[in-house]
Specification:
With 610 residues, the chain is α/β, with parallel strands linked by helices. Keywords: ATP-binding, Ligase, Nucleotide-binding.
Length: 610
Amino acid sequence: MGLINPDFQTLPELFASVFSHYRGQPARFPFAHKLQSAYEPISYDDFHEDVRRFSAYLKENGTAAGDRVAILSENRPGWYLADMAVLSLGAIDVPLYPSLPPNQIEYILKDAGVRAVIVSNMLQLGKILSIWQNLPDLTQLIVMNRLEEPVEDVIDLNNAKAAGTQLLLDKPWMLDGTKVDPDDVATIIYTSGTTGLPKGVMLTHRNLCENVKSAAEIIRIDETDCSLSFLPLSHAYERTGGYYLLFACGASIYLAESIETVSLNITEARPTIIFTVPRLFDRIRTNMQKQISTESPLKQKIFNWAVSRGEHYHRSIEKKGSASPLLTLQHAVAGKLVYQKVKKRFGGRLRYFVSGGAALPQKTGEFFQALGITILEGFGLTETSPITNVNRPEKVKFGTVGPTVANVEMKIAEDGEVLFRGPNIMKGYWQDREATAEVIRDGWFHSGDIGEIDGDGYLKITDRKKHIIVTSGGKNIAPMPIENLIAENPYVDQVMVVGEKRPFLIALIVPDFQKLREFAASAGITAPDDAGLCAHKEIVQIYEKLLRSISRQLATHEKVRRFILAKEPFTIENGLMTPTLKVKRKTILELYEKEIDAIYKELNMVYNTE
């Protein structure tokens, strides 16, 4: 069936058409959340009524078209409710990551001139209360959780909806006549920049609606589909793909309890499609291999044989269009013995994963494909609403992000930068004409990514333009392919290659500490802690051997000469990653500045400038 209404021009129009389509059908539901030990669905009629009530409350209390309203919450039904209520009034929502500290929240609320904030719980409420005195525009504060004790000038969502119910009884016409234009701004999403202050990306109703329509032509979804949502709704990728697209097609969205419970929630929700990021696949693959290693030698042999047959089968299909009768038979046997069991771990109904937000290592994609799990890798930026490219279910090319979606044009600039044009390109950065003019030139959006397009129109991203390393010898090096090679090793969790204005490259490696501890135990190595483990000669040799082996695949100037084993992982919590899981290179360089300088000083006399 696809889109329930293929002609919607604004998000309120999309919401209204879907609610209207499912009116009086209590068995159908857009959202389901975990209450106690089971998933509870929320019907379209109940949710629509809640949106109307909350909209009435917001309107009565001063929220008007064009006003900015922030949502500071984890994924939960209240997030979707707040979004629909705000947008249906012609107001603009400003989503905030719940992981943000008060000072960053304050900057965004002040910059956007936010008039109302809707928060999830007491923790988030506390952040806003601590900065409220610095926010002269902020007049309304609503908390989704029930307030056990009154807080001055704060109302909880239940009371707001109750007030809205009464308002609609007294003034049944009060929500009539709100006009929303396709070119009105729907949301301002602040990009969590890896350098500098975040910028507010203005996305219009047209931007988002056209992107949903384009994606719906490729990823066929209907009301028999359901998804598990765990990526933050504050991210444009989950917002467009994991929310608007699914809602527009009548699919059901199950909310994961947390990132830690995803494996359990998958077996409960039994999703047919999951929008995710590559880090999840690393985690699933590691857990799978860990589990297999505890099985009998025979079972391990069968699993490895099944992976090998799967890889050969798909390679043969890709190159020749078919597989030999023997390989086809082996693939069918492997399906019975292994692939079916793997699919059961994902609920047994999964059609495909959609991967975005970061590059998917080619070997990871091929590993899952070999086990009968399809991953459709895509690409886009907040500024592009966000989907520009996605692999097609009928032709997946790992190592690429696929061709463009409908309505999006793409070309490669002379310096290799990927440029886009289409109705999905943002209106601009909020109150920042200079920054807007830097990225939108001659009608083309400059993505900041370096890439190449193959003969089938599939885009391969080779690196971020600003991450290109220029050595002191003038060599231009894209670090991402080198980082991907290093990251394939099971003893590596994260990696960052550095060498800007330096004579050669070195790598900052975050070890997979669990794997190291297992190796240490089997090798009889003892150490007081992880730092002691990293200093042990045999552990250091693991990484020396790794760099020697990948050196054979690299040009002389691309070789990584030395490495530093990082003290701790790069995470959002320690400020070394953005909320969208991008490594903050500048912050990490500052943190390890002394160790990096020491290596270059020590080796400067050894290596000549390339």
